[in-house]
Amino acid sequence: MKALPERLVADADRLLLPPAGAAQGLAPGLRARAAAVLLRRALEDALDTYWRQVTPRMTRVGKHRMLCLEWYAGRDTARRCRTTWAALSAVCHYRTYELPPAPAEIRIRLEEVTALLAVLDAGSTAAPAGPPRGRVTGGSALPEASGGADRPAHRVLKDGPGPTDEE
User: Fold this and answer.
1) pTM (two decimals)
2) Is the pLDDT of residue 165 over 60?
3) What number of other Cβ atoms are within 10 A of residue 60's Cβ?
C-alpha cells in the first residue's frame, strides 16, 4: 500500500519538529535526512499520480517524467520539480566526510514540496497543455537549439563512400 504524498509530508514535518515532550532519540541531522527521504518519496508519488491522470504510459521511466513535465505542467513547475528532487536526492545520500543536512534546509524543501503537491494536484485535474504538435524526426525540435529555422535539425547521411573511404 502506498502512502499518500500529503501523509509523507506530514510525517516529515513531525520529524523536523517533534512535539514537545517527545523522546529525542535521533540527532537533528539524522531526523533531517529521514525527513528528506520522505519528502523525495512524496514528490515522486505526486508525480506518479499526476502522470497516471494525464497519460498513464509516462509513469514507467522516472527520467522521462521530469523531462516531459515542462510540456504538460509548465516550465516553472518542471524546473521547481527538478531542482527540488535533485536537492533532496543529494541530501538523502550519506557521505562520510559531509555534515548532515540542517533541519532548516529541509524545512525549506518541505515548503517547496507542499507547494508542488498543490500545483501538481491542480494541474492533473485541468486539461494538459500536451506535448508540442507535429512530428519530430530527429535533432532538436527547438529552432534556437538546432541553429535556426533555416538550418536542418539533423544531418542527412548519403549513401556511398565516406570522406575517409578510398575508391
Assistant:
1) 0.70
2) no
3) 9
